[in-house]
Specification:
The protein has 17 helices and no strands. The protein is mainly α and 423 residues long. Helix 7 packs parallel to helix 14.
Length: 423
């Protein structure tokens, strides 16, 4: 089957249901746009509320049709109109312009589907990003508009592994979790050897899954690691976020009361498939994942999916890492040794995200990470004095984010003193 016929399979099932409600959607979008125009002109009364009501009607019709990705887009417009009504947008004219553009883009996209264009919701991403930013939010991940057919399944194994149950299964999963965390930390610190360790551990997890549905997410993630090992994933931030979420799911699996019934969330599978679809290099594992889920048919050409965050969004990312590290450090100080691996992950993530920050900030976060490295190798190094110093260092890193662009010699001096105490 050639690509043209493949793409047509993404159109056919949609045309009938969409055609039944297309007139209703067009009218609702037209009236939503008129209400928004009245509001922009300063009309008093209920113009904005009428716009919201009509858009909600259109969104409901799209939900019935089942246009995944398009419904996320229409909901993003609704959210922006709600933010306008509640005074939660940083700049009202910008928000109005983004909402108007969203309505026009949605109408054009639906017209294209009726004319025979493939349903590739990623084509909506540039405007979807504008809708979020008009609300003062960081750029959303492109995979939020990526909806492959999750009913597809991995191919059957040539030979099934021995079935593990009970204590043997739990021991295997705990070993896989520790190995994955160790490999992830190595990769976050720039050691490519961590990729093979993560891959080996993830393969251990996948082999414990006994049904195609339970295998799918872990199997797809192996394709992502295949691409990562081949330098085929350009967006390092997206990969880092995915691997941290994957590590969290492996942790949940290893701690589940009945790990045989554990099912990874669909959102994680979609994220894995998006990374596999956009990979530029890879080997057999990646190729099989792309073929099994027909990922090439879902990618439009030349769509800007840049998710570079502004400086304030970067600060929020650093704050989140610090908050998570502080919580785990408190648990560790209170005697929960299990808090050490997640603490190590969070401070490693912090140091990695801060790599392009002012030099003094890099020095501080690196010093915290080095202490975490030492503790991972020898937890007995933890004592009351270190507990206080790490807590102080995290507080200093958090406070500095209030005025990051203007950090001065005083902060550099505080950092030098802090790192000397840690060392």
């Amino acid at each position: 089957m050639n690509k043209a016929s493949d793409s047509s399979s993404l159109i056919g099932p949609l045309i009938g249901p969409l055609s039944w409600v297309k007139g209703e959607i067009d009218l609702a979008l037209k009236q939503a746009g008129e209400g928004l125009t009245e509001y922009a002109r300063g009309a008093a009364g209920t113009a904005l509320q009428k716009s919201r009501d009509n858009l909600h009607q259109a969104h409901g019709a799209l939900t019935i049709v089942g246009l995944e990705g398009v419904t996320e887009f229409s909901l993003a417009i609704e959210d922006l109109l709600a933010a306008l009504a509640e005074g939660r947008t940083p700049d009202v004219p910008t928000a109005i312009a983004a909402a108007e553009k969203g309505l026009a883009t949605l109408h054009t996209y639906l017209d294209g589907l009726m004319a025979g264009e493939a349903h590739q919701a990623l084509r909506l991403y540039p405007v979807y990003r504008e809708l979020a930013q008009a609300r003062g939010l960081p750029p959303p991940a492109p995979c939020e508009l990526f909806f492959p057919d999750l009913t597809q399944r991995p191919p059957r194994r040539e030979q099934e592994p021995p079935l593990l149950t009970g204590a043997a299964l739990q021991a295997r999963l705990r070993a896989a979790r520790l190995g994955f965390d160790r490999g992830l930390v190595k990769w976050l610190k720039g050691d490519a050897k961590g990729i093979s360790e993560m891959k080996a551990s993830l393969n251990m997890v996948e082999l414990t899954r006994t049904t195609p549905a339970s295998r799918a997410c872990w199997w797809a993630a192996l394709g992502v690691l295949d691409a990562l090992g081949a330098d085929g994933l350009a967006d390092a931030d997206a990969v880092r976020r995915f691997l941290l979420r994957l590590a969290a799911q492996i942790k949940r699996l290893s701690e589940a009361v009945d790990s045989r019934q554990f099912q990874a969330p669909d959102e994680l599978l979609r994220e894995a498939l998006y990374l596999a679809a956009t990979a530029t290099q890879g080997h057999a594992a990646l190729a099989v994942v792309r073929a099994a889920y027909r990922l090439d048919d879902l990618l439009p050409a030349h769509v800007d999916t840049d998710t570079t965050e502004p400086a304030d969004a970067r600060s929020e990312q650093l704050r989140a890492s610090i908050a998570a590290a502080k919580a785990e450090w408190k648990r560790l100080t209170d005697g929960a040794i299990a808090a050490l691996p997640p603490f190590h992950l969070h401070v490693t993530e912090l140091a990695t995200a801060a790599a392009d920050m002012p030099p003094a900030y890099v020095e501080l976060t690196t010093a915290i990470r080095e202490q975490a490295d030492l503790l991972r190798r020898d937890p007995a190094l933890h004592n009351d004095m270190l507990a206080l110093e790490i807590a102080t260092a995290l507080l200093l890193a958090e406070t500095a984010l209030d005025d990051l662009p203007a950090l001065d010699a005083q902060f550099a001096g505080q950092t030098t003193l802090m790192t000397e105490r840690l060392h």
